[in-house]
Amino acid sequence: MTTSVMTTESSSAEATEVLLEATQVTMRFGGLVAVDSVDLTVHRGEIMGLIGPNGAGKTTFFNCLTGLYQPTSGEVRFLGKVLPPKPRHVVKAGMARTFQNIRLFPNMTALENVMVGRYCRTSAGAFTAILRGPKFHREEKATRERAAELLAYVGLGDVANNLARNLPYGDQRRLEIARALATDPQLLLLDEPTAGMNPQETKETEELIFRIRDSGLAIVVIEHDMRFIFNLCDRVLCLVRGKALIEGTAAEVQSDPRVIEAYIGTPDADPVVDMEDPAPVDDEMATASGAEPGVTSHAVLEMDAGPFDGHADDHRKDGV
Is the full-model pTM beyond 0.70? Predict the structure, then answer.
């Protein structure tokens, strides 16, 4: 079954249209500055990556964009209008998101979970719903049909009547994406969509995100899987300690030494010990540090692979 997420006409104007513009967004929790004067611009039809080491403030920044947090200072504009810091208004404006930790309704079916996301686009009031009037039935039928289309779109058409809690982990992640798409967004924000997935599931998620982008949506993705993010994104923004370190193409960000340092530290910060002939620890220094005199130190800081060669950071979460 084939369906489209949204109907758009290709044009150079759409390619450069600014959907989201965050200016000098700052978020403080008491004396802690979790996000410090961060700017972000997202254009229609592009995939923007948001990376950074654990605790860099990525999810906090997402929360500021989507109305879960009211920024201490700065502003967030969507299609030129300032967004109120309320998730419901943000969703109605055309932004939808998923979360680090899966937030499904476990005792509802996959179909019902997606239908929940669709109700922000219905107009039947409480009175009509209670009386089960004609308008309610029309909207309920349309909502059910759209939810079924979206489940098929993300590859879950065969499990529509399964409880969400009984779905495999990868399917639950895709179900969250389907529910977000049910709100008819123009901008989709995905918070670690491949966390916990095996390589095959990650590849399928990458293909799904490309399909969503090709339908005309813009996408912002937080990820720790560097292979995934650099293969996927048109541009990447790296946050470190709440501040924007660098923004550019995937190639520019991947090769920037500051990004490598943010992930693995300064190469010359400590000496590399030769394991074939380790130097003995000086007795006086050992005593001062609490170690036994004469014990050989085997601390090795050398890394065999760069920060983008593996998936060691896949399951790390933002600390703030």
Answer: yes
